[in-house]
Design goal:
Elements: H1 2-15, E1 23-26, E2 31-34, H2 36-40, H3 55-72, H4 74-92, E3 107-108, E4 113-114, H5 131-148, H6 151-172, H7 183-186
Antiparallel strand pairs: 1-2, 3-4
Helix pairs in contact: 1-3, 3-4, 3-5, 5-6
Amino acid sequence: RLGLSQLKVAFAKFSTNQQKFPLVYDTAWKGLVSSGSYRTGNAGQDFGNSYYNDHHFHYAYFIHAAAIIAYLDPQWLQLNKEWVNLLVRDAANPSTSDQYFPFSRAFDWYHGHSWAKGLFESADAKDEESSSEDAFFAYAMKMWGRVTGDRSMEARGNLMLSVLARTLRNYFLMQDGNTNQPAAFVGNKVAGI
């Protein structure tokens, strides 16, 4: 009980927007971003969250924690459901008609994984950056869907996990006999960032 109580207190700091740099809604790119870069002028503040860097990675930790709390305390769920759903919509909105968030901001259904770096320029293009955190977002979304009774969200999480498993196995974590990468590269066993 003490651990659950402490988790709720820590979570409430964010769900009530009392953290050092509260989240704000960005009308240009339509999403929830840290006010950190706006206040400090530092694009890297809050790991570049104001520039949509790694939203799916970072928000996954909140979504997963919320799923655990809600599972253990269903009454807590009703007080926090909308806030957590906003985090899911920011990173993985399922609707193309939502006027507040774009469809699937992070997950690229064609390539089978999410892209990191948000709006930051990169000399060597976008990258996956963290396959484990990419999968963790899908898992967190699945668990949040399960605990809230949102079968569609749970199914999307399952689908993303299935697509990721295949993509990561074939393009990032290479087994012997992999035919998708040059033979000389397969011996590395894993793609670099």
